Amino acid sequence: MLSLRNEFSGMLRGPYLRKGLMLVLSCAGLTWGFHVFPVSEDIDELRSLRSQLLHSETFSQQALATELSISNSQSDCDSDAQVALLLIEMRLAEASLRAGDVTQFDQHARSLQLRAKRTLSCAPRQSFVWLIAFSLTVLHGQLDSDSIGMLALSYKTSPDEAWIAMRRNFVAVPIVQLLPEALSQGVLSEFQQLIRDGFEAEASRSFLRATGPVRSLLQARVEGLDEPRQEAFWKAFKNVGS
Questions:
Q1: Which of 10, 69, 171, 235 is most buried, taking the most CB atoms under 10 A from its CB?
Q2: Which one of 36-40, 127-131, 155-159, 219-223 scores highest in mean pLDDT?
Q3: CA angle at residue 184 from 182 to 190, to 5 degrees?
Q4: Higher-confidence residue: 116 or 35?
Q5: Cα–Cα distance between 185 and 57 in angstroms, integer?
Q6: Residue 37: pLDDT band by 50, 70, 90 thresholds?
Q7: Maximum C-alpha span of the chain
Q8: Of 150, 115, 118, 158, whose CA–CA distance to 134 is shortest?
Q9: Is residue 136 packed enough to be buried (19+ CB in 10 Å), middle (13-18) or exposed (0-12)?
Q10: Residues near 171 by Cβ (< 8 Å), separated by ≥ 6?
């Protein structure tokens, strides 16, 4: 267990730091291109933007920064608006990281942490926000009982929503051996359920991130499925990995 924790710490240092942070940000499906969207003028439009962001639509950095600036006054307890703003700022943080702007990235990361904390104080059953909070702690190299508790709360508050599960599984699979037994079994079951529900490509991306020992655990879950689902997974895995 200690060697696994040391391996995790090493992933977030030296030449692996940039790659590790990029993977954490992209865990939530937040890797996008750059197009322009109309600036939202009221809360209904911001909620509509939340839906667009969750469906991975693409927007320009300038438009995102403008939207974040004019919408920052939204109530911390309007969870739809706050999730939209979290998604916007995660995109901007990712763009800063890609550009090598560490100062700007750190500013966005601190803002994200504060926003997630305020949102959860009003809406403690926001599974996706718990996932973001967990991802941010991992981003800073923290994997302890507090951060693992955030991941556990994401599972507890929304165990079956596919749009959360496919993002959460991408984050959780690489560290599954570091998690408490009940939680690790939940991660493996979620991987299996994604395949059962027809999300073979998303499950394949989790499989690709896994180490050899973790792949063995995942493969056992694949082999527990019926033959058509197994064939669909391995076909998707071949396409994703090519």
A1: 171
A2: 219-223
A3: 105
A4: 116
A5: 33
A6: very low
A7: 52
A8: 150
A9: buried
A10: 24, 27, 28, 131, 134, 135, 138, 151
Q: Which two tokens stand for residue 194?
A: 């994604």
Closest listed residue to residue 173, CA positions, set 149, 148, 208: 208
- Joined tokens for residue 33: 């291109």
pTM over cut 0.85: no
pLDDT digits (tens, 9 = 90+) for 102-150: 898 888 888 888 889 999 999 899 998 999 899 888 877 888 999 999 9
Three-class SS string for the chain?
Answer: CHHHHHHHHHHCCHHHHHHHHHHHHHCCCCCCCCCCCCCCCCHHHHHHHHHHHHCCCCCCHHHHHHHHHHHCCCCCCCHHHHHHHHHHHHHHHHHHHHHCCHHHHHHHHHHHHHHHHHHHHHCCCCHHHHHHHHHHHHHCCCCCHHHHHHHHHHHHHCCCCHHHHHHHHHHHHHHHHHCCHHHHHHHHHHHHHHHHCCCHHHHHHHHHHCCHHHHHHHHHHHHCCCHHHHHHHHHHHHHHHC
Cβ(215)–Cβ(173) below 8 Å: no
Residue the block writes with tokens 């942490």: 113
Q: How far apart, in whole angstroms, are the C-alpha atoms of residue 112 and residue 86?
A: 6
Give the number of C-alpha atoms closer than 13 A to the C-alpha of residue 108, restricted to the C-beta side.
24
pLDDT reported for residue 33: 27
Q: How far is it, in rounded angstroms, from Cα 89 to Cα 30?
A: 10
Contact between 215 and 223 (Cβ < 8 Å): no
Contacts of 73 (CB under 8 A, 6+ apart): none
